[in-house]
Amino acid sequence: MSDYLIKTVCFEGQIRAYAVCATETVSEAQRRHDTWSASSAALGRTMVGTVLLGATLKGDDKMTVKVEGNGPVGPIIVDGNGKGTTKGYITNTKVSLPPNELGKIDVKGAVGTEGSLTVIKDLGLKDTFSGTVPLISGELGEDFTYYMANSEQVPSAIGLSVLVDTDDSIKAAGGFMIQVMPDATNETITLLEEKIAEMPLVSSLLDDGESPEQILARIMGEDNVKVLEKMPIKFECDCSKERFATAIIALGADEIQSMIDEDHGAEAECHFCGKHYHYSEADLEELKAETLLK
Ligand SMILES: [Zn+2]
Asked: Which residues lie near ion ligand 1 (Cβ < 5 Å)?
């Protein structure tokens, strides 16, 4: 199954719900960064959360999610947008920890329980929005939920789930976001709380072959879900040799000259996708010439 997200309204508009299968997307991040289990789960959950929040944006709008906890993985940075593409990295890729008391990957231990979750939205026309909340759990699902309630004032339930195989590859990844609209009845809310509490992990359901539609039907009841849109999701980085060249030009002619004299070239690496770019002495001479044109 290729990755996709569904946007739905449920119970005649009382609830908005999103569900996503992001197994390939998170796998791509795991392969590119060669992450170990706890790093994979922490980065993967942040990516799934970002994709779900990104689904509320309009097409060209973009966002960045930063998770900065006091655990061993260090800061996690993930970009998302209204088109369903995402990219991201985690500072320490090689973290694996003993399983937690439930026998699961200890994401809380990896991320840490103190720190913050920040969402920065670029809504075009130089309009930006930024919200920060303290980490309340470190497991990330609760932290994204807390962000939605406190920073965006939308009571929500967010589930983020990544299943890592014994060889560190990703078996399944996905999640859901359920948003309670102002006219939702107490009966609906209570029903959903019960269903969510008894539900297996989304990644296990995806691993068993369930679709995002089936996962939401489990929570809502099949007849209560109306799918509005189905959006493909994928890992995609927009870096290029030209983009890094702009950063090199900004260093100025003297700095570029010393790269030529001392290093006989330059290397750049994209944090988001791990791609390397090489600049030969000739490339650097050209970039130096460009600084002189400015
Ligand atoms: Zn890149």
From this structure: 237, 239, 270, 272-273, 275
